[in-house]
Amino acid sequence: MAPTMTDKSKVLIFDTTLRDGEQSPGATMTHDEKLEIAELLDEMGVDVIEAGFPIASIGDFEAVSEIAKRSKNSVICGLARAKMPDIDRAWEAVQHAAKPRIHTFIGTSPLHRAIPDLSMDEMAQVIHDTVSHARNLCDDVQWSPMDATRTEHDYLCRVIEIAIKAGATTINIPDTVGYTAPRESADLIKMLIERVPGADEIIFATHCHNDLGMATANSLAAVEAGARQIECTINGLGERAGNTALEEVVMAMKVRHDIMPYDTGIDTTKIMNLSRRVAQVSGFAVQFNKAIVGKNAFLHESGIHQDGVLKNVETFEIMKPADIGLNEANIAMGKHSGRAALRAKLNDLGYELGDNQLKDVFVRFKALADRKKEIYDDDLIALMTDSAANTDSDYLQVKWLRVVCGSDGQEAELKMLVDGQEKSCKSEGDGPVDAVFKCVKEIYPTEAKLKLYQVHAVTEGTDAQATVSVRMEEDGRIVTGSASDTDTILASVKAYVGALNRLRVRSQKTAPDADVKSVSYKL
Ligand code: KIV
Ligand code: ZN
């Protein structure tokens, strides 16, 4: 059944990290990563999880149906264009959920109507037919007029009325290109509630993109005007400047409940862990000064601020780090820390490990502790990401590396396993990273292009680990790889090889005719 709103102060949180977020170039997640993120979202109390776009690829379909099967409390939603095969495929994937939803959409603004070259009347008919079809399959149907904020008001009212009569239970109002502003966002929802017959029987949702940096403000303004579902992603992940950030709208309504008296079912103490996991698996690092989840969001650097916080924390903090699950006691671990301490610490950071996994991570932890005196939370998080990204069952594995570099030139020697077979190579390069990447290319020739290479220090100090992220592209498929090590060159080659492994898996999983993502909005 579709959620109904008896409690007018409740705002539903619809998370689309796995669909709109994952659509962002390079943010591709593996099947297992999607399942893990969906489980964390469900546990956090997200009302609706948009798990993917089932017709886009076999991988998307499989992920959505598995997430549907495993779902506990959240509604599981699959996206579909205004086409019968899309809707059927979405239903095929979500039908296993205890609470399934089909979300179908069509671009209604003049610019979007021109693409399929439909007249207003023809499009109205398509909307009627596709929403009715979806409703015959599923009780819970969401419909979106894409680019609603640039659609003529009369036409928007007309098609929304058609969608409601055809059985839509949620009407989503997308600001697809992040064009609106808070007052206009509120006025639009208000106008629709006043003018559209049947508006009081459905839930209006707001779906904002952040092109002008106003997505959070626009979403909250829509809620004040009567929208009761916010569509958002963790860390604001999404195409271009991203979507509304879940953590921002949820914490805004919590911290300023005095002026925004709306409740969500979100357990905010799970926000930080989810933010970290999404950053890791998507390869999109969170900017340091990002609201709520940025590394600096709770740091006080200036003397006046530090002094004030020591005397009364409320002088410069409007929320507590613990509210978002940020562990204040960042106590360092070291080579004398035992397995039980490691398990407890990882539990605190949101990782629950089975005995075998713990054994493996403990070996890596000890190896790191031999090289680095103090191991902080961020080191452990990097270690966990590394263990998930590079495993002993990978097709390509880095076995041994030696690099000579200095003012006289750079040379690398690398041993790798390719499908279990040891191969080695020596190469010179324009810098140590270039030399070692040339070795990889010689051992494993590939057409894949390196699109991005970036290095972040995990903690402070010269013995800090470096996290290296790479983004690679081959035949339109984009993947990221990341790895951490106190040796930046070793982290670089592991990240590079990790991305190659992902490209290989993706090319095996993508059906030849399934490249729908690149044309996802065309009808
Ligand atoms: O931004 C958008 O318009 C969308 C739709 C598919 C809802 O993501
Ligand atoms: Zn969107």
UniProtKB/TrEMBL annotation:
Pathway: Amino-acid biosynthesis; L-leucine biosynthesis; L-leucine from 3-methyl-2-oxobutanoate: step 1/4. GO terms for molecular function: 2-isopropylmalate synthase activity; acetyl-CoA C-acetyltransferase activity; manganese ion binding. It catalyses: 3-methyl-2-oxobutanoate + acetyl-CoA + H2O = (2S)-2-isopropylmalate + CoA + H(+). The keyword Iron does not apply. Its EC number is 2.3.3.13. One of its GO terms (cellular component) is cytosol. Residues 397-523 are annotated as: Regulatory domain. Keywords: Acyltransferase, Amino-acid biosynthesis, Branched-chain amino acid biosynthesis, Cytoplasm, Leucine biosynthesis, Manganese, Metal-binding, Transferase. Its cofactor is Mn(2+). It is an enzyme of class 2 (transferase). Gene3D superfamilies: 1.10.238.260, 3.30.160.270, Aldolase class I (3.20.20.70). GO terms for biological process: L-leucine biosynthetic process. Residues 11-272 form the Pyruvate carboxyltransferase domain. Pfam families: HCS_D2, HMGL-like, LeuA_dimer. InterPro entries: 2-IPM_HCS-like, 2-isopropylmalate_synth_dimer, AIPM/Hcit_synth_CS, Aldolase_TIM, LeuA/HCS_post-cat, LeuA_allosteric_dom_sf, LeuA_bact_synth, PYR_CT. Signal peptide: none annotated. Mn(2+) binds at residues 20, 207, 209, 243. Belongs to the alpha-IPM synthase/homocitrate synthase family. LeuA type 1 subfamily. Catalyzes the condensation of the acetyl group of acetyl-CoA with 3-methyl-2-oxobutanoate (2-ketoisovalerate) to form 3-carboxy-3-hydroxy-4-methylpentanoate (2-isopropylmalate). Homodimer. This is 2-isopropylmalate synthase. It comes from Thioclava indica. The lineage of its organism: Bacteria, Pseudomonadati, Pseudomonadota, Alphaproteobacteria, Rhodobacterales. The gene is leuA.
